[in-house]
What we know:
Blueprint: H1 12-19, H2 24-41, H3 45-58, H4 63-75, H5 79-92, H6 95-116, H7 121-141, H8 146-286, H9 293-301, H10 311-339
Amino acid sequence: MGVMARFRIIIGAALAAIAFANSAEALFLEKEIRKGNRFYSEEKYEDALKNYDEALASKPEDAVLQYNRASALYRVNKFKEAEEGFLNALALGTDKIEEESAYNVGNSKYRLGANSAIEDAESAMEHYKQSAQFYKRAIELNARDTDAKYNYEFLRKKIEELEKKMNEEKKEKQDQEKKSEEQKKDEQEKEQKKKDEEKKNKEKKDQQKKDEEKKNEEKKNEQKKSDGNEKKKEEENKPGEEKKGEEEKEKEEKEKQAKQEEEKKKAEDKKKDEQKEESSQEKSEEEPQEGSEDSLGARGKDETPEGEMTKEEAQLLLMGQEEEEARMRAEKRKARSQNRPAVLKDW
């Protein structure tokens, strides 16, 4: 339930004032006011406004016309224009018009506040406070105005409830803003932490990549150095190997020559042994045999004592031994020659 409204248009005062004027203008004003009041009574408020506007064009400072016009505006929910009209009537009118105008200014401001309460609580609160002040003025002008008293108490409670609600909404809004701010801060911290973590991981990956590249580069340099050293070693060893090959070749050549000389020497020794053996055989054939005439003749000429060997016998015995030794040596050389491997001659 809202404030109690009352919009009794004031008829007598305006018509009484017009009755004293006996002119065409006065007759026109009377006609327009009557038509406006009739339309208002029939709740044809838009038509009433047209007649009130026509009358005010001729008499703008008429407090009754201002009040009646504001009442019609209120009926068509034009509360802001109605407020202005009631304020004009309040400023121009008598005590009776002032009381009704103050009361209806309160009503107009209340309606403006109620319309803005949902979208703008602060604007509604301002209109409610102003409305209460005008109800209070109406009470001051007429202490027996129960409607004004009722509306004043209604607005006072309404203001207290709205202030409480606004404080709760303000606190809730502050809590929500605080919560939102904390949430935003947490999100920013998480985002910053995430960025720091990503940056750290990126730096770690970059460092790992650099270390890997450095390791590969070092490995590559070591391989290159190793290849260079190997190549250098090969180049250094190449003349040595060639020299070694020449030395081995020369050594082989010397060994071959020594072998050939040894074979040659062996062949010469063999030939000498064969010649010596042949010479010994020839010599033994030329010497006189035991029991020959020469031997006997010699013995006869030079008799030796019985039981002793003569000189000739001793020589014969010695020659026999030499021949036996020569024969044995020849057999040994022959046996060695048969067991010796064949000599390969490559010269």
